[in-house]
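Regression check, zinc ion case 449:
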Amino acid sequence: MTSRFLPPYLLQQVAASRAEAADTCLATLAIDERLRAERAARAPAPGSVAPVPGELAEAAWTVHDARRGTTLPGDPVRRPGDGESGDVAVDEAAYGIGATLAMFEQVYGHTSYDGAGAPVSLTVHFGRDYANAFWDGTQLVFGDGDGRVFERFTKPVDVLGHEFAHAFTEYSAGLIYRGQPGALNESVSDVFAACLKQRLLGQRAEEGDWLIGEGLFVPGINARGLRDMAAPGTAYDDPVLGKDPQGAHLDDYIDTTDDNGGVHLNSGIPNRAFQLAATAIGGSAAEGAGAIWFATLTNGSVRPTTDFAGFAAATVAAAGVHAGVVRDAWAEVGVAVAAASGRGQRRATGSGPGSGADAEEADLVAVRRSGGFAGMVVDGQVDLRSGDERAEELRGLVERIDLRAAKPGMPHPDMFVYAFTLCGSHLVVPEQHLTDDLRRLASLVLEQR
Ligand SMILES: [Zn+2]
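Current build output:
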């Protein structure tokens, strides 16, 4: 294991059921290239999807069924006004998108994610055993889960709200998906996800459980949810999953190359600030602190590279009579609004595949997959001198792969990112840029015991 802060999640799964898990690895890896090509073909220019004024040019939302394939968007199966389909994932997605659009419209006066009524495309039953959900720049996508750890990703409505909010962020502040702006991007998605869940349950901020992804895990996994905004780092502690690695204070900021710079790890810090502000303001989180965060993201005060300190200052500036409360909330998590750059002492970890491998690295092939909605790490390595049955094929792949030809580039929210160590060379590649050879190499290495 090269991982210091996350558990051998898939590796232990593999030990329990190697063949089955290998299939899952391959299935999850299979989306990449085709997704990229299809996205390029489908992607509308921002602003080009607004409906005809006064009359919707097309349905406000459409749920599609990929039928366990990876072609997007799949077959349209439900639109507004249609009755229940009888397919639980389809109907959960329909309910969730209706509720999400209603919250943005009714609470913030914002029509769809772009504020101009863009029709929302959703796809369920994506891939086989695909344990993730994401926004790919044009639509929302949900897997059915692997059935061993994760249930279907449409089950908790806040997962859908989270993915929709990624679209909202892209079309408003445009926070880049890396480092502190990336952690803020992640946090904003959790913020509106929690607002949505509490609004549907009729809860005041102080009544909410502040869990993201409650119900996402199969029975037997010791997890209350995937993240806890009120107490980051306490959502789960399980032999298979390991322990929730989120920190709740800037002193616990995790510097890592995984997960686009720990965007799903460090989001706990701004998440906690929002939860503190929302409960101090009281009432509905969506209408109280949520309205301040919404204003912050849409009033031009947040730039794509805004860091924690800049974002905190922008929320204080947008908070009106609640400015003091919001400033105190950020101070509680170590982000001082007055400071130019409030980044405190940081803890370094997870420096990537093969770290510390030193002299033996020349014969080491390592793969580390991070990111995804859950922000969890799966890794593996093969020593080419070890007699491992995969060594011969891996050696051929390593000789053929030209790292200089691989495309790094920015990841999409909640898609995976792969770090490769190939006999001394290192490369990080987002899921949609994997070549056939890199995908094969990753599937070989990650199916290890
Ligand atoms: Zn996300």
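Comparison notes: The first strand starts at residue 61 and ends at 65. The radius of gyration is 21 Å. No diff flagged against the previous build.
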